[in-house]
Amino acid sequence: MAALRLLSVWTLLLTVTVCDGWLFDGFAARRHSESDEVALWPLPQKFQTSVDAFRLSSASFQIVHAKESTAGPSCSLLQNAFRRYYSYIFGNGRKHGKNLENVFDADLAELQVQITSADPECDGYPSLKSDESYQLEVNQPTAVLKAASVWGALRGLETFSQLVYEDDYGGQNINKTSISDFPRFAHRGILLDSSRHYLPLKVILANLEAMAMNKFNVFHWHIVDDQSFPFQSRTFPDLSHKGAYHPYTHVYTPADVKMVIEFARMRGIRVLAEFDSPGHTFSWGKGQTGLLTPCFSGSSPSGTFGPVNPILNSTYDFMTRFFKEVSTVFPDAYIHLGGDEVDFSCWKSNPDIQKFMDQQGFGQDYRKLESYYIQRLLDIVSTTNKGYMVWQEVFDNGVKLKADTQIHVWKEKPPYQDEMARITAAGFQTLLSSPWYLNRISYGQDWLGIYKADPQNFNGTAEQKKLVIGGEACLWGEYVDATNLTPRLWPRASAVGERLWSDENVKDVGSAYDRLVKHRCRMVRRGIPAEPLYIGFCPHEYSGN
Ligand SMILES: *[C@@H]1O[C@H](CO)[C@@H](O)[C@H](O)[C@H]1NC(C)=O
Ligand SMILES: *[C@@H]1O[C@H](CO)[C@@H](O)[C@H](O)[C@H]1NC(C)=O
Ligand SMILES: *[C@@H]1O[C@H](CO)[C@@H](O)[C@H](O)[C@H]1NC(C)=O
Description:
Elements: H1 2-20, H2 23-34, E1 46-56, E2 62-65, H3 76-90, E3 110-115, E4 134-138, E5 142-147, H4 150-163, E6 165-166, E7 172-181, E8 187-193, H5 201-213, E9 218-222, H6 238-243, H7 254-265, E10 270-274, H8 282-287, E11 292-297, E12 300-308, H9 313-329, E13 334-336, H10 345-349, H11 351-360, H12 366-382, E14 387-391, H13 392-396, E15 406-409, H14 416-425, E16 429-432, H15 447-452, H16 462-466, E17 468-475, H17 485-489, H18 492-501, H19 509-525
Parallel strand pairs: 2-3, 3-5, 8-9, 8-17, 9-10, 13-14, 14-15, 15-16, 16-17
Antiparallel strand pairs: 1-7, 4-5, 4-7, 6-7, 11-12
Helix pairs in contact: 3-4, 5-7, 9-12
Bound molecules: 2-acetamido-2-deoxy-beta-D-glucopyranose (3 copies).
């Protein structure tokens, strides 16, 4: 009925526009691209859509709690999301088309959101075990979104907003649709590096927003590194006071960190903090005298410093107090402890380290010294009741790891497929980043290679494949700051987003290209300056607001 009505409206319009002549003065392409099919990204697991179209009126359409829902107006996470998605759908202060208002009798009055489990988790934090599945039925007179918890509702709201399309007259429409959706992997992350360049809060928050648009659920915050220490510690204020690029303007205060965590939580995103050691710690040494290994030139100190000094008790005393604080600041159940790229040359130069190596019977194997350090660090972090994640070297070097350790694969050689096979054969959970170093750029459509990589593409048993928890797109910060971060990351990271959310058989790059072009325009329209995939245009160009 609705479809028929719509068809006649279309015929009428077409006649009118051809008579007016403006269909031919360059508007044709615009017409086509605006009223084309909706572009869902990432593609839901199961969905059915039809040509029955309903109109959404910005004056009367509402997103509301279903009567049966276990969550209500006191659930600020959902209240907030309802407002956010209403404004994504109708824009900020944009008028909806008036001309056709009365010819649509098929209005969609509201979207009812129903949380079904006894605990909707309104005030909780998302975790690796969160249920993000949802069901969405768009039909007259109401659409219904069902999810066990708020986490699934957030994903479903995003999908609902993506189903809405604008007709040529500025009206918002949605077709009759049925969707049942859930993520393929539980860990879908983005790594941002706030050490090589300080990232203003505004940029971090904008990217959390973009992550939610792509159904990512982990913000891996590589917060400190050699170059700077912007994390403000209450226990050791000198770390940022002396180790940040600037002690007041280039730091994340406890209030800043809290804001990032809450903003992320409202979007179903975990904040996984990384404090990488014993390498990548040069900036730590500025505010914590005695923490780093003094390097020697011949028989005297050269005045430079290497990795964390693994032979001093003071090192472990410091780490105990520091990680005690970190574990209370970041509510996530996991901490990323790094452990990558330890340069042994400074340790080799230092006579005290030599003596310690002899005492311990390590010979000249510095990997054993590294393992000694990591082992003690892991024991310390274990006492905070956090799980930990480490870069692959920690596994490669044979450090004894707790069974629930998650191992992060980043190297390209040996091939990551072999590494994933080895890690899972040893029974550990793993996640992949090797093919997703988005800081590496090249001319052309490099999203294709990003899109084709698959974390379960290695030789292993079904049991092994189950140990793959997902992956992360990494944007290392050597050549990235607030000026170029967002366009460099999006929509290239969207390719990772679909790989980690959608069914493994969603691989058609032609369909992906068409949808991604539109999804990118949608991000642009929502204020995310995502770069173009190729030649073309968006119906609404970026206004740089
Ligand atoms: C939605 O309905 C319109 C109008 O009937 C139709 O042109 C369009 O192809 C439909 N979109 C989808 C995705 O089915
Ligand atoms: C370091 O700690 C160990 C174990 O707690 C202890 O045996 C050793 O004497 C300490 N060393 C120093 C120099 O205090
Ligand atoms: C799996 O093993 C086969 C046979 O050894 C090999 O040809 C293939 O390249 C391997 N696949 C991957 C993804 O490593």
